[in-house]
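User: Okay, second chain of the day. Same drill as before: sequence in, structure tokens out.
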Amino acid sequence: MRFGALVLAGALGLGGCTTALDTLAEPARPAPLSTASAEDAQVADLLARMSLERKVAQLIQPQINSFTAKDMERYRFGSYLNGGNGGPYGDEFAPASEWLRLADEMWEASAKPLPGNEPVIPTMWGTDAVHGHTNVVQATIFPHNIGLGATHDPDVVRQIGAATATEIEVTGIDWNFSPTVAVARDDRWGRTYESYSEDPQLVARMGAALVEGLQGRKGAGDFLGSGRVIATAKHFFGDGGTEQGVDQGEVNGDIGQLKAIHAVPYPAAIDAGVEAVMASFNSINGVKMHGNKPLLTDVLREEMGFDGLVVGDWNGHGQIAGCTVTDCPQALLAGLDIYMVPDDWKGLLESLVAQVKDGTIPMARLDEAVGRVLRVKLRAGIIGPAAVKPSARPNAGDMGKLGSAEHRAIAREAVAKSQVILKNNGVLPLKQGASILVAGRAADSIAQAAGGWTLTWQGGRELTNDYFPGATSIFAGIAQAAAETGGTALLSEDGSLQSRPDVAIVVFGEQPYAEFAGDRKNLLFDDEEGLELLRKFKAEGIPAVAVFLSGRPLWMNRELNAADAFVASWLPGSEGAGVADVLFGKREATGRLSFSWPAQCTGTPVNGADGALFRLGYGLSLSDRGGFSQLDESCALQNGAAATDWYGNGRLAAGIVAKAGGVELPNLRGQGGGITARGIDKDRQEDAREIAFEPGAELTIAQDGEGVGGFRILYAIAERPRAPVTLKIGETAIDITSQLAHAEGKDWREMVITATCAPGLGDGITIASEGAVSLSVAAIARQDMPEGTECSF
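Assistant: Same drill. Structure tokens below.
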């Protein structure tokens, strides 16, 4: 992974001496992997010469938006990360060259000579490249894990790992927080698409394959060499087994039975040589995993034999009983080696140093954790005689490898192999020379086909196709395939007809989401755009193919009834031509379900055969005729009352729109009309918004349709407004300046608005400020309130 001229002699016993960074030799192949005894000796030598402060810094992992190169030079963090919405120099859409520039800047700051005999220990950068290097514009976007699970093909997953590692190396990054080896057992969980399967054995095979693709095969000459990066198996353990699929929730039950499902993928990943494991947010029988010594140490280390490093998840240590984000020796004592502390790194570093000095944390435990970090860095070539700055490494700066034709071909193959045909009355494969109408908002949306963890953490509709140079939408893939057969394909999102086509393809599905924002209370897919289009074509006698984009199986009985063919396309990513390859019969349909498909719309977990409409392993070949009798379309959850939550957990509810000056702010995030809204952490990652108003700006949040009840707004304000701020509801304007002034610096407070102060209430709220002010919002709900409830003004 890291090869070249000697630049870190000080790391291995030559004091602080380094050679000039601008006279590096051509990168060479790595030396053979050190034996365990040699590693132990090197680690012991480094530890013996490190100061306490430098040791603790190896355990601190901040995010790039919260520290500078000067901080890196001063504190020498062992590692750092970019969050899902983080980018170099504050630009999450920065070109790849800027990612590499920042990698060099941070490495050089961490590699500057130290006084005396203290060794120089370069830093390493970790990123969430969970389906390709998808934080970076132009990268290849591979299918999410749920789609890869449907391929049942470890070889293609191994190829994806290798391609992803190469693209990561282009930008100078060292470490990938992947693969997710969760065994998702409740499809309501918003991270279901990060799981390969509900079957632990399939997850184990696929996860091990991705580890081998990212790192190389253990013992092979290229292990952690050129075109390889450090892999991470996550999240240990039980993240896919929380009650009701609640993210970061509770997992309860007999430990042996839980291990028989959720721990199965880890020995396979360890045997494949995985160098890092990430602790999970969830609790096991009431104990948070970040502080669970019997599992992090006794099971993972002693029982499974893992000798790499254990990294925490985003401030996960702060959720341990008795801990805060800046004070948590419990996590280190339980077996955590690196704290992922995105913003509050300084306070945590200081408290850990003090706790080692006062004996709360034994020096032996500190050395053990630091030694694990150093050992991984030795294996990866980050420290040692072959270490060089990021831009001098193999593949670095070779922008032609980012989204290369070779990598896109691998992705296209994976997409084709992941398509699962659930129904086919004979319309597939599409006939040569056919005239095709392609409908649905998702048909030409690469962002929707890619899902969450794509350029931004949650993904989103604001990402137009311009953000994805070189990518192919599903419609573009269909159009190209149709032309090759002498046919035509016309895009009509709303399904309107200029002439009668031979066949219609309706592309529809879930909007992008990521963790906890994607949690559901049931399996009803309540966006009826696709259903209405399918029924429209059915009424007009036009054969219709449903292409369903989703991060999980959902109750689709109505759509299955209305379609002549139904394809579960999952979240295929940037290579929409792979979908067309199956629709047109250029490739056989080999995808088979890696999750059971629900027969009911309720939230009851479906695994195996119980309650399944289609069982694990189901899928039709193109020659199969998969008809079935009319499915039951009744669902007690349909036509229910509108959800009262307008905004919560970092996401606007369906049918709720935020606008400023006529500019839509999807998920209450972005910039326009004098408003800048950015994600901040309240209880979890980016579960709230900081909304900055320029003088005269107005923010409107409204419901599409008639609303019922009053409003509750959970808000905080750090500095009182210096000019009037008005809340407008319906025909009523309320001056809330004094309320905001009273709330200054008093943490989160609730604002209550009822008909007593806002007669009629209306269908939305508008906040207008005459001056510059910054207001944080964590939740907005609309609901009927008990009679006599007063406004909070």
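Residues 539 and 562 are 10 Å apart (CA to CA).

User: Thanks, on to the next one.
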